[in-house]
Task: structure prediction
Amino acid sequence: MTDERPTLTVLHLEDNSSDALLVRRQLSRDLPGALVRWVSTEPAFKQALAREEIQVIVSDLSMPRYNGLSALTYAHAHYPLVPFIVFSSYDDPKSVRTALRTGAFDYVFKTELADLPAAVAQAAHRRNGKHRGDLLENRAKVFELSAELLREKDFSRALRKVLEVSVSLLKADKGNVLLFEETANELRLAESIGFPKEFLERYATLPSDSLTACGRAFQSRERVVVEDIHRDPDFQKGGYETQSFGFSGVQSTPLRGRNGRLFGILSTHYLSPRRPAEEDLRTLDLYIQEAERVFELLEAT
Result:
């Protein structure tokens, strides 16, 4: 006789049936074997927790009959080992900070539905509570740093601050930011940390379609991670003098401004071959999201 119990049971608290259906479809597709229990009221939420073995809770933040923070407080008090993920359209830093400090494991925006399965899987994996305190501390720190960034009135200083924070968050050895020059169709080095003068002069500009990590990130509009440039076919194909780069691992993340316009690439570098931890990359994404709001404001002034 086979055991047909679900490998993962997710309790989803959501008052909007359309959003609930989208979440169920996304989780069912990306997490085979997952069972999603949808509830829309406080009594149903509490009953589900009492009657079933729930691995992860996903909840909206603002609902007409039951506040998401109240649900979080209740779950944290009565079921402290069950990770709680806020899945909300509220993207203001204050709401995120409040949720994380109240005990949420993660905060995913509704516009990022595709990221929810990974967050749920990670929460289930860490249900035993290991590293949870560090995770919450990192999330709260991101929004403290974002608040500092909001005080910047100069684009160049803001860009420098974002690079410094990103290098720190990803525990990198070096970093740089390249801005897109539309007229020349190239990427121009704007800010850097840890690189010698010779490197900065040699690679002051790059074609926007270069085979480097930053060029590939610009073309794909998505993050590119290269664990070891000396073993990467594209770096070799491009004919770059890899021995003179002064690093082996690199990740490159697009930066956007007004109306989602891609205006640059932020890269962090490692002396030895390395891939940044997924949790660190997720933390970076939260920070970049807030930074892009600042860039958008500065572009408008």
Notes: DSSP finds eleven helices and eleven strands in the chain.
